[in-house]
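The following record pairs a protein chain with its ligand, uridine-diphosphate-N-acetylglucosamine.
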Amino acid sequence: MDNVRVLILAAGKSTRMKSKYAKVLHRAGGRTLIEHSIAAARGVSPNISVVVGHSAEQVKATVPEVSFVEQKEQLGTGHAVLAAREGFSGYSGDVLVMPGDVPLITTETLQAFLKFHRDGGFEASVLTADIENPSGYGRIVRRSNSEVDSIVEHRDASPEVLKIHEINSGIYVFNAPALFESLSRIRNDNAQREYYLTDVIGILVHQKHKVGAFKASSAEEILGINTRQELAAVDHVMRRKKCEALMAAGVTIIDPGSTYIDAAVQIGPDSIIYPSVQIYGATVIGEDVTIHSFSRISSSKIASRCTVLEGSIVVDSAIGEDVSLGPYAHVRMGATLADKVKVGNFVEIKKSALGAGTKSMHLAYLGDATIGQNVNIGAGVITCNYDGVNKHPTVIEDGAFVGTDSQLIAPVRIGKNAYVAAGSSITDDVPPESLAIARGRQAVKEGWVKDRKKK
Ligand code: UD1
Ligand code: CA
């Protein structure tokens, strides 16, 4: 929308969170609170400024694409807006002010709110909601049905005002010059000794400006986070919404209550997610994929028709079509598994590529390895990729067979269609089409037990 700027207040400490990190750096639905606010605000204006103070450098690093204003001391929400005054000099349009701790707010609601403000010709508007338990929120005191009188903070409210269930979301639209003019008049003679942005509303009303209050249709959207309990409640709402959206798009989620899926995750239709699965980051999952319980998939790609069995972990990796993984497989650090790969029980794959049709079914460690197609990795095979100082690569060419309980001491290469006999410690390259045996010869001492007993 034209001629509107956004100002997000995110300087506050998290006193009630009992945290050493700024509140807006805490996460719900897989993203920091400040990222949620910015994502919603972006649909209203590309011009976003964030007021930072506590953990300013970390906040800046989290959302580097916006501009910042420093509030050196945190003396209240009104004081926070004042810190941004210089940046608004000469600007006569609207400013949408919002806190950084109301992460469920949507672009649609913000747009409807801005439209309400403009259509009504208001000097200032506040977004409100009726909620069951208004404890802790500022209350909207109305003069009549349509007019606002003031906003009273919970800690400053009389018993009468505490009965009001309409609360301040902390989201406002102001005409910028009117905002900064009234801000110079607010004082901190209240219970918290803070400069309240909410007082601007009363001042504007007092000056006979038109102030509007727009009630959000969904009270859930304006839930603020001040405590860890509220953080968990909002996280719960986000997860529920994500599961609902995925189910609506054709994904079976057997127990949405125990399923944790981040907002950015994509899953194709007819995929089935079993209870207690976690899928995080920008993971993309294809169609007809089944993910069994207690698996965690993070920032990875899993193509169609894969099966991930119980307790598997996939992080920062890419998996082709028709792959079977687990139970208890661990795939990480940029591992790539081509189509039809089978990786079974207790196999760890780190920074390695497995070609199509390759199998490693039991108890193996494959690290820094490039493995071709249709390779068979026996149970207990280990790539010894680390010499205590450096990591070294292992190459296993197409069609090779690495027998059970072999160690491949890197750097080493197993040639095409070569065989490594079970129990070998391979230190030298194995040429294609050959057999390598590298183990001590078996000695049998007949009658040894009897002989020992005689002694
Ligand atoms: C505020 C509102 C309250 C409203 C509630 C909605 C005021 C005085 N009260 O209360 O009416 O119902 O939000 O969630 O505004 N911040 C700064 N600098 C400061 C203080 C705060 O940047 O000096 C930031 C915080 O980081 C936070 C936001 O402003 O993102 C809101 O501050 P917070 O202390 O959480 O206000 P509430 O007590 O929740
Ligand atoms: Ca708050």
